Amino acid sequence: MAAQDAAAMAPAGADPDYLPFHPAPSRPRFRPPAGAVDAHCHVFGPAALFPFAPERKYTPVDAPADQLFALRDHLGLSRNVIVQATCHGSDNSAMLAAIARSRGLARGVAVVSPTISDAELQRLHKGGVRGVRFNFLKRLVGDAPKDAYRDIAARLADLGWHIVVYFESAELDDLAPFLTSLPGTVVIDHMGRPDVSQGIKAKGFRAVQRLMDENERFWIKATCPERLTEAGPPYDDVVPFGKTLVERYPDRVIWGTDWPHPNMRSHMPDDGQLVDFIPRIAPTPELQKKLLVDNPMRLYWTEEVGA
Ligand code: 0GY
Fold it and tell me: What is the pLDDT of residues 80-105, one digit of tens each?
């Protein structure tokens, strides 16, 4: 769908230039292994039930849980990890409601404030949350509140949660000391957002690999070819980046759709095509099983919800 056609469909309430998710994704040719996890996706609203946060930087189209779960089934996936997006601030209600409807097939990554009580953290844990997300993108959060992030991080050990970090690789030189000072498992979003036009030998992507090489407790998501590409679908230019990560860190890499793809400008991806990207970055059944099943299960499903 052309970007301008999609924008014309943005319903009232969403930003006028906001692109809605693909209305009819293709069925992928690639058959994911049994139990495959979409380890990075979101739910938005519905705003009538779960209003967006006043401090948000964008207003998306509703992307409710039922649609996420229908997409999961359509793509041949089995489970979801729902990541709290900035448009819902630190009110995790929409995500928790989605997890509760998933019959144990979803887990969550929350955004929390440093003043959150222990009881509330326990409530999130019982609701299926297994990590928190620290965002460093100015366009999404303004200046990242590092002191707050540090205070939150200190609360997570007892829960066994990990930290998901979202940054641009160009920022990594500045951020690395802070990131490596965080305790426990740290999961890097969207391949560390390399500048794909520079190629895999460029400084930013090398810095991401250095961080992974020097810190066994760092994991990475081989996600978002649609955000990183310059060439557009089927994302040939992003294949070397994803493949490098999957082959170099086979036990510390996970994959996800990033549905409903907030803030896409160039185009709205066909989620079926995103699934067909998987065998190009994970060429063997062994790598596919680690990427889609073994690794995300280890991070998110070691314990039943409610335990
Ligand atoms: C993503 C990427 C984006 C948005 C958010 O929390 C968010 O609002 O993560 C983005 O705009 O790059 O992971 O969905």
Answer: 999 999 999 999 999 999 999 999 99
